[in-house]
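P.,

For your records, the input lines for the assembly:
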Amino acid sequence: MMSGSAEEKDDSVGVRWPELGVALLLVLLAGLVIKDSLRVGTGWADDGPRAGYFPFYIGLALLLSAGWVALKQLLNWRAHERFAERAQMASVWAILWPMAIYVGLIFAVGIYVASILLIGYFMLRHGKHGVALTAAVSLGVPLFFFLVFERWFLVALPKGPLEAWFGF
Amino acid sequence: MDELQNLFHGFAVAATLPNLGFMLVGITLGVLIGVLPGLGGANGVAILLPLTFSMNPTSAIIMLSCIYWGALFGGAITSILFNIPGEPWSVATTFDGYPMAQQGRAAQALTAAFTSSFVGAIFAVILITFTAPLLAKFALEFGPAEFFAVQLLTFCSFVGMSKEPPAKTIAAMMLGFALAAVGMDTVTGQLRMTYGYTELLKGFGFLIAVIGLFGIGEILLTMEEGLAFKGKSAKIDFRVVWQTWGELIRHWKLFLRSVVVGCWMGITPGGATPASFMSYGMARRMSKDPQSFGKGRIEGVVAPETAAHAAGTSALLPMLTLGIPGSPTAAVLLGGLLIWGLQPGPMLFVEQKDFVWGLIASMYIGNIVGLIVVLTTVPWWAAILRIPFSIIGPVIIVICAIGAYTVNNSMFDVVMMLVFGVMGYLFKKLKYPLAPMVLALVLGDMAEASFRQAMLISQGSMNIFWSNPLVASIAGLAIAMLVWPLWGAAKNLARQRELRAGG
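Structure tokens returned:
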């Protein structure tokens, strides 16, 4: 970051931080696997291998391979490879946060109302569709799923206060 | 000819009216899944799997495998008309398919693609019909050590054959195994790696992982590319189909070669995607006029499509006979079998004759139905692709969320789907392969069980993997596959040193 060469000023996100982050996360997970395998026992009991016997080596292999990726990235820190452009990251973010809020909303108001809001928001904000079309799709699709699941397949999906008000 | 008799019996099972109806539904859904971004064979089947729990297993697997055929067919439509591969295995189809569409030969390209897919699949099904019973009979003799050796070979081949860096392949695979180990240990009943969270008792469902990794991950990637669908329209009339078929017959050698490549890559877990690239590369190298490839050669459509479909179909051979799937979608189907209480593997051919032969017979009928469906409905699918992503995108997210929820009726799974989605996006961008991770997640428990049984027999000695010629040769092949990348690295190093010495 200090050198400030022409390449580093371009409008993109470098690959090194995501690469290092994912590798270190995997190392951390490997640590959790190994720690718990040691807790349940990695050795031999009277009736055969203990519960941690197999996962212990899995954790070890994960630790080594992910550690290798992290190490290689650290040794190669100067090389600037592109992860994605900033504009691209922005559009990924533009769908990621509504998705997270959508999942949160399912807890609160059920999947059908949350779906109406998600489709409606996305069509108005990113598609610039008219209100009539937006209303038709965002109401029609969840209604269709409601009929398919609650009526025909008798699979109950998460419902909220609105459905309760209608008596479901 | 025991096989033929069994097969005819299978046709009697598969060709009932309800089953034919399920096939038609499956193919149509499959093409739809193949055409839409963010929905593919693996996660499409994963989402629909819970809906089939109440059906009888034979009808259910017929419908689900038809979804798979449909998805294989559907990938070609988007590649040729829109230059957007709907599935990874149709990337190579875009090289010559899209130029053909630009030159106004979309109908020929589509006919060639569908016909090639059909030919590839039929040859693979014939292979399955005649080798599956033999392989199953052979595998009946397998003990735990042999099974573990075969599983080891499957996973080592990923390391040896994938184009991703070996360290990342191993890391992705081990992550799959680790996630599979979470929860209650089936042998001792102890809790592993739950760290006190009751949600983790059941472990991580691979269906959730597949929906997240392939579905949500793909949506994020599609957003990043900022797709604007600008496609060619196409209508296929029968005169064109007839003419193209006449032309295709002259390429019979190409078909045969691509079928061989595809079947080989499908049985070994290379999968449909590398098969399609390999076959395309071979067709170009062996052509008299390699320069014209990429500019709209019909061979450039035939080669990858035939190989991809042959690979996709023959991936079911090791799944049925050994319980080891050759592709992520086959892995999801295998998960389905387990949920229906059917243990995939050699015993399936002894205990569930109706089921196995019904499925194999349905592969023949399903592919014929598929060919007819796609040839007649292309304009309709092309119209679906013109729906903007701002509508399709959120609808697919809703479908994924519903699919994830219905697996176990648990909201925790929906949250996990989101986590797996972000992981799928990062892994794709950082070139961690997803297929070995999914396979490890599905096979983890089985691999662990056979490993522990083998260790029990040998009282903890690794020598059991060298104890007889069969297991030793499988294990030896596995080790060879594992160290294969080292050989490549050593060669590179030697070449660099030579260069440095020379320069």
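Two observations worth noting. Residues 86-166 of chain A form one domain. Confidence is low (pLDDT under 50) at residues 1-8 of chain A.

Regards
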